[in-house]
Amino acid sequence: MTSKRFVLVVNPQGGLRRGLAVLEQVQARFAAAGAMLDVHVSQHRGHAAELARTLDLRGYDGFCLIGGDGTIHEVANGLLQRGESVAIPLGLIPGGTGNSVLLHLGCTTQQDATERILAGATQRVDVARLTCGGQTVYCLNIVGWGAVVDINRTAERWRWLGQPRYSLATLWHILWPRRRRACLVLDGEAVEDEFLFVLGCNTKFTGKAMHVAPRADLADGKIDVVFVRRASRSQMLQLFRGVSDGSFVTLPSVEYRQVRSFRIETELPELLNLDGELKSCSPVSVDMVPGALTVFA
User: Is 0.90 topped by the overall pTM?
Assistant: First the structure.
């Protein structure tokens, strides 16, 4: 019987910088199963995307990674930028802080992730395709604007706090909110107003287990857009308390739509949060690509 062969990209800087320790844990299991690993340690931001875009993948049974949502973002973009149909399955092993995509897939441990990869069962997942500033970017997790960017920026400054930083940053920006004017276009329907945030979700979770899109489905061809125009401080605190279980979406100040495309138009370019990475700027157009990637599940 031919041994399975996998590419494995490790982000040593993700989350609490445990990528190499996780690698040691999973290598033994792959070896015990007779699987061969071609390990690449990413050296800088963007390196995982470069590897996914340029490596010769012929003869491999999967492209695996150890990292968080940012590493998944890089690898997904690298694979989708190859200019060919992406047939190789993605093996996702948690090594970040939030691991939102894996949480949506119900896979939260390195052991579970490794067993799924070795078992070989797969599923197709949708990807959000963004057009902004003449560039195309793909997202598997979220597309955020407004307070979502502010929260991520603050959480990055507070990285030394570890996992609680997302919740603390969210609370900070609830207490000191800032509204921005924009035109939000949902499947062709325009909503022009001031917004606290707009969050397009392909998965149910973001940050550290924040249940922001309880109706999200990775295989429905739609993206769940959650947005708030106006809310008092007390309403925002209610929102914060309800984010852990997704109940906040029932609040009157929260609007929730499931669409196949949306657009955020702003007078001046404003930074976006793409899968937890602060990059690109509005205006941005988003449309869904059904079944664009395959993952071990």
Answer: yes
